[in-house]
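Incident review: delayed structure delivery

Summary: a single-chain prediction request sat in the queue longer than the usual turnaround. Root cause was a stuck worker, restarted by the on-call engineer. No data loss occurred. The affected request and its eventual output are reproduced below so the record is complete for anyone auditing the incident later.

Affected input:
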Amino acid sequence: MATGQAPRNPIPAMRTYPPVEHPVVVIGPQYLAQYAVDLAVNRDFKVSDINGTLIFEVKSKLLSPRRRFLKDAAGNTLVNLRHKINTMHGRWEAFRGESEEQSDLIFTAKKSKMFQFKTELDVFLGNNKGEVPDFKVKEGNSESSCSILVGDSNTMLAQVHGRHTLAIMPNVDYAFIVALVVVILNGNNADDHTDAANTGLKVVNAFIEGIGSSA
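Output delivered after worker restart:
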């Protein structure tokens, strides 16, 4: 008869990412937290924390169907995002407040390649006139998840899981992450407020390829 304790089952390895070396500020330093921030985006594009407190919301205007407005809880417009049609890589531009002046450009986002099997976006800050992106969005192992990284590194800023759940690392501008998620989740129906998560991250490709060719 065997004696002694049964061998312990191996514990699955945990994937680790290097911490952010310096605070990542894009929209403003008031949106930095010293701790990891979890946010949820509902079907009305209202963004709440783990206690259900409204943090941001995203609005559109009837006469501006290709623009989205990221507002704080008090209703102040922080960022407006505009999809530029007839561009090769389906470019999005994000401006401060409700401005559309190039001097107020915060960042642009576009597909990394014209044709790709997994969604990958290049994100350039407004003062970056080069070809190397400051940040990247990469689709994960499932169509409903993605990671937001610093450039071509594996330094993680945030992850998007399932039905609009955001896990944001400490010292990362969470308003900036939400603005990027607006691009990811908008889908190819610019004036449709249905739940974009039903089609996962594939909506990004559909939006860029569909609207760009039909407009």
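Verification: The CA atoms of residues 188 and 210 lie 7 Å apart.
Action items: add queue-age alerting; document worker restart procedure.
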